[in-house]
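Blinded run. Sample ID left blank on purpose so nobody reads anything into the name before looking at the predicted structure. Input follows.
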Amino acid sequence: MVYTLGEAAKATGKSKATISKAIKSGRVSARKDETGTFHIDPSELHRVYPPTASSEQEETPANTLAKTDIDGTIRELQARLESAHERLSDKEAVIADLREDRDRWRQQATALLADQRPSKSFISRLFGR
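Blinded prediction complete.
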């Protein structure tokens, strides 16, 4: 396993610029590939810069969550799921109401268009005939 410049910086707690300067000055040997990425051997890096405590902890398995953390996460996800179901049912109810309103307006418009009775002329309305 080799480090890139960023991984080396994290492993030692130094900045990328510090690691890069050490490589350029020859204090740390590294090879550069055709894309310009540095490949640094861990033993060569830690010869100059000792590993930090956090980098040693990162090497241990990170998937050892406590059971209480998992239970809490499950409860939170269940609550979110229930909330999403409630919002979905509310939206479905609103959609149903809007469809009913649309259908009533459509019936009313159709009834008004169908009412094409011949109107009385102005004179017949004036004299009441």
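Unblinding after everyone has recorded impressions. The mean pLDDT is 84.
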